Amino acid sequence: MGRIYLDAVWMLNLLMDGMILYLTQGLTRAKTSNFRIFAAALIASSIVPITVLQPDLWLASTLGKTCFSILIIFAAFSFVSFRSLLIQWLTFYFVTFAIGGTLVGIHFLFSTPIEVNGGQVITYSTGFGDPFSWLFVCIGFPVSWLFTKWRMEQIQAHRLKTEDLYRVKVVFNNNSIMCTGLVDSGNHLFDPISKRMVFLADRNLWRNFLPDETLNQLVGDEMLDALEQLPDPFKSSVQLIPFQGAGSSGQLMVTFLVDSIIVFTEEGELRIEKPLVGIQDHDLTFDRMYQILIHPHASLKGISA
User: Fold this and answer.
1) Which of 41, 76, 162, 279 is 20 to 30 A away from residue 198, measured at CA?
2) Regions of the chain short of the pLDDT cut 70
């Protein structure tokens, strides 16, 4: 019959609970300290000897686990309001299920000999534990924790971005294209002569107006030769704007004077006549969530000439 090494399992769950609480704190932005996180993890991991030595105790019931988890949240974070407490409590369970689901999925994939008893990870063997199963938990849990943390941060970043996303219509050379734009507070590009705002669009947008071969030349070393070969009316609308990128010296950006840009907002249409739109050689975002960066002054100035 297999043996359960309670001290090893307790230590393993102490580390797990600590990481889960740290991730919960990061997602909820709750005020706390390392001491409180450690104390709460110690309280949370104490359920291991309790449920193993006293399996019929009321804490092993659904109501007992619910009360116990609320105690953990009280110990880990400063109490601000019942609403914040509820959010922290739900996030704690969400993170637990997300990480646990990852481990269970990998367990079924590789048929790893790991059992979950009363919400606790326990390994059984005739010795100190199957080396592969312990290695799986010790490595798999931090990996799943890091993956869950990364995905949650990505979701938060996407949520923040979507608040500044708008439908945009670009009209140029008797053609129009609908795309998604992001208001870029860091874009302060203006034409130094005409003082026109400079919007930035990636290749996914410019492919609707120019062939790929021309785009490759306009962002490469053959830029000046490509400008000479542009047909009208592209040649008459092109302008070179000086700019300085991060970690680079002064450069020239190819921009085109388009007919108009229309930004569709909840308050109505914001029309910008004759703005400049520059060419970005790379995608503005890895998932192509948006294709054009809206100049922040567009929303402040409304209609500009």
Assistant:
1) 162
2) 1-9, 99-163, 244-250, 286-287, 299-305
CA distance 146 to 148: 5
Annotate the chain with three-state secondary structure: CCECCHHHHHHHHHHHHHHHHHHHHHHHCCCCCHHHHHHHHHHHHCHHHHHHHCCCCHHHCHHHHHHHHHHHHHHHCCCCCHHHHHHHHHHHHHHHHHHHHHHHHHHHHHCCCCEEECCEEECCECCCCCHHHHHHHHHHHHHHHHHHHHHHHHHHHHHHHHCCEEEEEEEECCEEEEEEEEECCCCCCECCCCCCEEEEEEHHHHCCCCCHHHHHHHCCCCHHHHHHHCCCCHHHHEEEEEEECCCCCEEEEEEEECCEEEEEECCEEEEEECCEEEEECCCCCCCCCCCEEECHHHHHHCCCC
Order across the sheet with 268-273: list the strands: 238-244, 250-257, 276-280, 198-202, 292-294, 175-183, 165-172, 260-265, 268-273
pTM higher than the cut 0.70: no
Chain mean position to CA 193: 39
pLDDT of residue 176: 92
Residues 6+ apart with CB under 8 A from 81: none
pLDDT of residue 199: 93
Look up residue 137 and give its two tokens.
């938990």
pLDDT in tens, 17-35: 888 888 788 777 788 888 9
